[in-house]
Amino acid sequence: MVKIGNIEVGEFPLLLAPMEDVSDPPFRAVCKENGADLMYTEFISSEGLIRNAEKSVQKLDIYDYERPIGIQIFGDKIDSMREAAAIAEAAQPEIIDINYGCPVKKVACKGAGAGILLDIPKMQAMAGEIVKQVSLPVTVKTRLGWDDSTIRIVEVAKRLQDVGVQALTIHGRTRAQMYKGVADWTKIAEVKNHPDIHIPIFGNGDIDSPEKALEYKNKYEVDGIMIGRAAIGYPWIFNEIKHFMKMGEHLPAPTMEQRVSTAKKHLQFSLEWKNELQGIFEMRRHYTNYFRGIPNFKPFRTRLVESENPNELFDILDEIAAEFTDAFAIA
């Protein structure tokens, strides 16, 4: 059993990545229902939290059925991060997570996210202050380095472990790569298999099928896998991976009824959690993947992404269920 502090997260946990404008409560709900073991909030600005900014505070919303769950914070100032960690702890998650991996320019080039990989002593000091601030387990998500010439991920892992970080998720790319190229899991394995590393090490990057998840589990010996983009519009990937690892066979692809039902649940929660217009707008990124691979689907997709009326959207989804039989499976 993998444990983060005293939190049990499964024999080989599958984690949902904290993705900005994606990993909100409505999306987390359908991922949890379909097998995610541990989930994180979208990353939350420390400056936004300490200034009580509405968008940042709303991201603290968590629900009992999501547990265990971590709240992820980011920032470049140690004092602000310490204060934000205290605010996040008051929202009663199981875990506080620090984002040391976001590659986006407006974050990384200000010294937050992956930008802190250019200042490893500060990275260590910030993590240590957060560990001292909160009573919950503290975890970190990071990348291999800023670029190929600054990869010091084993040293980073040791330093973070030394100040009390209790689990580390490593995305197998540098900041310079952004999301391009292939994730290098050999560097993740170097951390996991280093004799001085005792905390759980989770791998992240390029896992998009049950076969690849099993291959990487066996080849790189990580304690668990974090899944990001492959879960967008396809929350079934978690249970599909678990089934394949246990039974060596694929689960049947989700039926049209399952796809429509899940999309409707996701939409309903989005409408309830956000304002109506925002809930409709942010669902649009998910429809393509919910119905990926269906021939002649484009007219329905166009209507889904153009409609601004909730009742009309539910009617369109009902039309999709009626138009395509339940027996229709997408490979």
Describe the SSE topology.
Layout: E1 2-4, E2 7-10, E3 14-16, H1 25-33, E4 38-40, E5 44-45, H2 46-50, H3 54-58, E6 69-74, H4 78-90, E7 95-100, H5 105-108, H6 120-133, E8 138-143, H7 153-162, E9 167-171, H8 185-192, E10 201-204, H9 210-220, E11 224-227, H10 237-247, H11 256-273, H12 276-290, H13 298-306, H14 310-323
Parallel strand pairs: 3-4, 3-11, 4-6, 5-6, 6-7, 7-8, 8-9, 9-10, 10-11
Antiparallel strand pairs: 1-2
Helix pairs in contact: 1-11, 4-6, 9-10, 11-12, 11-14
Key structural traits:
331 residues, two-stranded antiparallel sheet, 2 domains, TIM Barrel, alpha/beta
Can you name the CATH architecture of the largest domain?
Alpha-Beta Barrel
Biggest sheet: strand arrangement: 3-4-6-7-8-9-10-11
How many beta-strand runs?
A: 11
Contiguous uncertain segments of 5+ residues: none
Tally of alpha and pi helices:
14
**What is the CATH C level class of the largest domain, in words?**
Alpha Beta
Q: What name is given to the CATH topology of the largest domain?
A: TIM Barrel
The average pLDDT score comes to 94
- Helix amount: 40-55%
Structural class: alpha/beta
Largest sheet: 8 strands, parallel, barrel
CATH level-4 homologous superfamily of the largest domain: Aldolase class I
Strand content: 5-15%
Please provide the ordered H/E string of secondary-structure elements. EEEHEEHHEHEHHEHEHEHEHHHHH
The geometry reads as globular
Question: Terminal Cα separation, in Å?
Answer: 33 Å
Our Rg estimate from Cα atoms comes to 20 Å
Indicate how many domains the architecture comprises: 2
